[in-house]
Amino acid sequence: MVTATVKQLKEELNEKTPKELVQICLKLSVFKKENKELLTYLLYESHNEESYREGIKTEVAKSFEEMNKDSYYFIKKSCRKILRSVKKYIRYSKNKETEVELLLYFCQQLKALRPPIRRNKVLQNMFDKQMEMLGKALLKLEEDLQYDYQIEIDKLI
User: What is the pTM of this model?
Assistant: First the structure.
């Protein structure tokens, strides 16, 4: 099966009735958890970005609390998993302010970890890479927001 381009899909979807579109969306939600999560975001949470961010921060904080801290191996594994989910939520939103805030929160949680991440090269590299990505995302915001977030980043460093 040859996959259609986005343009072709858009044209075909424009020809469908609202009832047919609902059926297509429901079929999409059955096949993958990510499709269902994206649909949930679009229908329920996209209108209130602030509560969306707070919900994700709560989830990230809970994940960091429940993390197995017996060895750096388990810490690295858990941090990668948390970062993957944060990146997924950022992709759903596509809002630069959400991206900056969630990456900043992840970095704050990572920095506050005990045992310290500076004793492990992989965790330190993960932190450094996310700080670099945070800096790039920060440049895409308005100047007043850049200033506010830069103060938070300076505290973190």
Answer: 0.88
